[in-house]
Amino acid sequence: MARLWTELNPPLERYLRALVGQAAQDVASETWLQAARDLPGFRGDAAGLRVWLFRMARNRAVDELRRAGRRREDLVAEPVEPRGVAAPDAAAQAEERSATRRALALVAGLPPDQAEAVLLRVVAGLDAKQCAQILGKRPGAVRVAAMRGLRNLATALGAEDETPWRERALRPGVGVGLDGAGR
Fold this sequence. Notes:
This protein is mostly helical. Helices cover 66% and strands 0% of the residues.
C-alpha cells in the first residue's frame, strides 16, 4: 500500500486540489483510508486500480463539496512531499510548485466538465475510457471535453505562441491574461 501511495498520491492530490481546493489533503486521506479498507475486494489490473482510486477520490470530493456547501476555492495549498524521499534543491522545488499552482489555476478557470477531463487525462495520465468510467460519461464525450479544455487553455495562454500549452503553463513568469472572472 505504501508503494501505491508513493506513486499515486501526488497526482491524486493535484486532481483533488482542483476540485476541492485546500481540502485536497483531507479528501485524499479519506480516499486512501477507504482504499485500504476496500483493497482486499478489488479485482483488476494496475490501470483498473488507478480508475478505481480516482473514482473513489472524485466521489469523496463531491461529498466534501456537498458537506461544505461551497464551490471551488482558490488554489493555495502547497503539495506535500512524501516522507523518506530526498527533496530536490529549494529553487527547483519552488519553481515546480509555482508552475503547478499556475497550471491548476488555469485549469480551474475552465468549465467543470472540461477541467475534470483535462485533469484526469493530463495530471492523472488516464485514457479516455478510464476517464469515462470515473466521470460516468462516454469516452467520446471525455475526448471532446478534454479537447475543448485544451483549446480554451491555449486561448488563455495566447494562441499566437506556438509553444505547446503545457510547456508554457509550466514556464515561470508567463502571464495568463485572464479577465477578472477567471476565463
